[in-house]
Amino acid sequence: MTTSRRRFLKTVGAAAPALLLARTGLARMGSAGGGGSTTVPLFELPLNIPPVAQPVGTDVAGRPIYEIRQRNASVEILPGLQTDILGYDGMTPGPTITVDSNQEVIVRQINETNVRTTTHLHGGHMPAGNDGHPVDNVDPGTSKDYYYTNKQVPATLWYHDHTMDVTGDQVYAGLAGFYLISDDYERSLGLPSGDHEVAIVIQDRTFAADGSLIYRDNIMGELGDTILVNGTPYPYFEVGTARYRFRILNGSNARRYNLRLSNGASFVQIGSDGGLLEAPVTRTSLDIAPAERLDVIIDFGQASVGDQIILENTAGSGGTAQIMRFDVVRVEDDPSVIPSFLRQIERLDPAAAVQTRRWVFSMGGGGGTPWVINGQPYDENRVDAFPRVGTTEIWELVNRTGMMHPVHIHDIMWQVLDVNGRPPAPEDAGWKDTFKVPPGGTVRVIGRFDDYVGDPNEITTAYMMHCHILEHEDHAMMTQFIVVE
Ligand code: C2O
Ligand code: CU
Ligand code: CU
């Protein structure tokens, strides 16, 4: 295999090219609830709802074309201050793309920024070469048409930057947005919809006193001290006395959350990364790792007008202990239902697996690449697996470190067979693409490579597997595979 693309090795502490992020030496802003100078207001700003992208036209085959302009922008995130970001259409999160299963679309990503980018659709199953491979660069002033077939069950996906060595930097700077797939069946279920269906992305950020973002590229995982939901610090969201569906995405670089409601009420989880569960699961707390999605219903039907219910993070402290607030402002009828059966999930049979692959996530490697898989740092000239199209495989994800790694596999959705030998919790028993592999533990997953072969001589047709703590990914805890005939 040959490729002429150069690997841009990131060394610890080096500045990312031309990124508008201050890295060191800046005063930290006291964060909300932290006991310091509280300059980020709690629950004073309304939740931002990103606009829904509209197609600009169709191609010769009649496929809708969406155009997204990646831009350097200056936006007001903290009241009265300007923050330089990288944004899809100049905003963060970017516009929400909504499609139906099997509806083919083109998303034209136009890079008007000053940095090279590549755009990955996380959770998407699309023809090889359209996955946003880390070295499939879109240089400033150029564009790429990403072709998405949406041949998959409805789910909460997100698109985000995936550029070699600087994914953490560029997602932190704002390059992330929602991509929601639905279908007639899901719409027929009677789940909360319209303005009672809200996608929220939770991210932690650190701001300097002047409002600029501080990114230190912490090799253990970048943690911010201020929470943004859909780009708004600690927002409030006004609700009626009814059920709401929240598609929750942990879009943070490294932070894991444990969400609960301040009134002790339960969530009803209806879906995870890859779509609906077979049956709803009632939970009082939600553990969510980077890149995971939780589709939950919160029922405000028992609440009274005037109630204020805080979405808390029991895994956080100070400025990260609170996320947002739901303000009950009106009495409403509630036409929605939560069916006791949601969607049939085809169970993959371990006996059908033709191959078991073992992937060990550990530290070591040296040379500025402390994070490795099977003892090796990522190298775009090396392909570590060639699964055959049409076959089922079992992948064993083994964690030989003392911290959890949220391992993400591109291309297909998987089912968890077991976690440390035990069957998955019901909320993890649906289709998933990101797995919390516990410290010292093992997660076994099963998947089938139904279609979309790549070219073993064209590296950009590879799909990635990596830790979704973005600083681990950027520091080489990543590998790749090409699906072959
Ligand atoms: Cu969400 Cu390979 O990433
Ligand atoms: Cu992905
Ligand atoms: Cu990791």
CATH homologous superfamily classification of the largest domain: Cupredoxins -  blue copper proteins
What fold name stands as the CATH topology of the largest domain? Immunoglobulin-like
Largest sheet: 7 strands, mixed
Report low-confidence residues grouped into runs of 5 or more.
1-38
Q: What is the structural class?
A: mainly beta
Number of helices: 3
Plain-language structure description:
This protein is globular. The chain has helices at 167-172, 184-188, 470-474; strands at 57-58, 64-75, 83-88, 97-100, 105-111, 119-122, 143-148, 156-161, 176-182, 197-205, 226-229, 232-233, 236-240, 243-250, 257-261, 267-272, 275-283, 286-288, 293-299, 308-313, 322-330, 353-363, 371-373, 392-399, 405-409, 415-419, 434-437, 442-448, 463-467, 478-481. The strands form 6 sheets. The chain has a 7-stranded mixed β-sheet with strand order 12-11-10-14-19-16-17, with no helix packed on it. Strands 1, 2, 3, 5 and 7 form a 5-stranded mixed β-sheet that branches. It has a 5-stranded mixed β-sheet with strand order 13-21-20-15-18, with no helix packed on it. Mean pLDDT is 92; it is low at 1-38. With 485 residues, the protein is mainly β. It binds CU-O-CU linkage and copper (II) ion (CU) (2 copies). The site of CU-O-CU linkage has 10 residues, from strand 6 and strand 29.
